[in-house]
Amino acid sequence: MxxxxxxxxxxxxxxxxxxxxxxxxxxxxxxxxxxxxxxDRIDLWNSEDLDQLPVYEPGLDEVVKIARGRNLFFSTDVxxxxxxxxxxxxxxxTPTKTYGEGKGMAADLKFVELCARQIADVAITxxxxxxxxxxxxRTADIxxxxxxxxxxxxxxxxxxxxxxxxxxxxxxxxxxADRVLIGGKxxxxxxxxxxxxxxxxxxxxxxxxxxxxxxxxxxxxxxxANAFLAQRISSINALSELCEATEADIDEVAYAIGTDSxxxxxxxxxxxxxxxxxxxxxxxxxxxxxxxxxxxxxxNYWEQIILMNDHQKHRFAKNIITTLFNTVNGKKIGxxxxxxxxxxNDTRESAAIYVADHLINDGAEIHVFDPKVSxxxxxxxxxxxxxxxxxxxxxxxRKINQIKVYNNHKMAVHKSHAIAxxxxxxxxxxxxxxxxxxxxxxxxxxxxxRNILNNEKLTNxxxxxxxxxx
Length: 470
Ligand code: NAD
Ligand code: UGA
Fold this sequence. Notes:
Elements lengths: L5 E5 L5 H11 L4 E5 L3 H7 L14 H8 L4 E4 L2 H7 L2 E4 L19 H13 L4 E5 L7 H10 L7 E5 L9 H6 L4 E5 L3 H14 L8 E5 H32 L3 H9 L20 H14 L3 H28 L8 E5 L14 H11 L3 E5 L5 H14 L4 H8 L2 E4 L2 H5 L4 E4 L11 H6 L6 E4 L6 H7 L2 E4 L3
Parallel strand pairs: 1-2, 1-4, 2-3, 4-5, 5-6, 7-8, 9-10, 9-12, 10-11, 12-13, 13-14
The protein binds nicotinamide-adenine-dinucleotide and uridine-5'-diphosphate-glucuronic acid.
């Protein structure tokens, strides 16, 4: 078995940064170099002030503080890092295609393909290539074909090692993983490569936490895991609408069903809709694959998760408009939260973006506060959505004036007609709601898209509270 002394990771994003930091922390004898084409991102990973790291994750700064400069390095020198590594992780982005064949459904593999070509160009010694990005089943075939065109007589072993961390809890998820999954070819060189990677994780995980499979099971298990998780949220969100029509309470229903050990209590929190860079992209990718293999019933089954999620975001926004007497034109709506979940600065596919767009179309003024998301990011998110929708520059510039961003919550909700909670940040619960109420137009509405606020307390203050599924 090959002893790994140097690891390179292509992609210093939400996955590459934290996963490699933890590997470096737990494997002090291995040099880990994380490279990215984006120089600004690498500069931030190298910044002295750990508050400037490009990824906000509780506990990440501590890990980086220990390992960076010791055996953890961030660099833009991709070729050098590839050349000296025995094992190369590919952790680049695999977004939904926005053009051509499979537009809006398939995963765009152009960044992954570029990685394979870069590796093939540079490598002069044998390498183990690890798919860390989430990929359609059978992508390893594509990678192997590109790598084998290298021509230098180099042997490449491709492994699949999908990442299951969730943002906001990434460090804990990595240190105490439910499992890591490693797929590889079931021949002698494939099994040897699997063992090399098992050895790395064995530095902090037990054998029971490390599952090994063939390549295709591993690739498909990642898409499946995300589809099952997303399905639970869409299921509970579908029921939240029925609760609103029947006076059942979705939190009580979730508790009642979650105590059945076969169902379990996790991932049953009704919300304004799931966001994040992966659930939608991965479910759409699964749907695309099913259609590709001519399995329309299977494709339609999984697609319903996304349709339900779109419906949930849409009906939350619509409910704000109808409750505010059928128009929000010229009204100020305070948004608490913009990130797609608490404890992250990531906003990709956040429900807040779509709810804001809907309300802006009805003429609302949106005033946002998020503890970790910058004004620039919030405006960029909307501009990007409007560009995708085909709006011209003039219209985008006009609409962007309807959004204001503050660095404290008081300004965002001052003299507002309604408040909408879009992210479940803990601090929102303990705000001085009496004072907030005094400074709002009456009737003062709160739309709690995360069911985190104390309904009874707020109602006693005088608020008109609208929750999800109640
Ligand atoms: P990201 O966009 O945060 O980071 C990807 C990085 O790769 C970017 O910084 C980009 O500049 C860089 N990159 C692109 N092409 C490159 C190249 N050729 N060489 C070097 N760098 C390159 O994406 P992410 O959230 O880290 O996700 C990466 C992959 O991991 C995706 O496939 C995603 O589905 C999967 N994943 C993400 C999460 C998550 O929580 N974000 C969890 C599990 C799996
Ligand atoms: C998710 C998975 O949980 C990870 O296992 C996976 O590795 C990752 O996707 C990925 O492949 O990218 P993440 O998207 O970071 O992780 O965060 P989640 O905790 O899964 O939350 C996703 C969205 O669902 C958030 O908007 C969250 O608010 C929402 N959610 C989650 C609910 O609305 N209700 C719940 O009960 C749980």
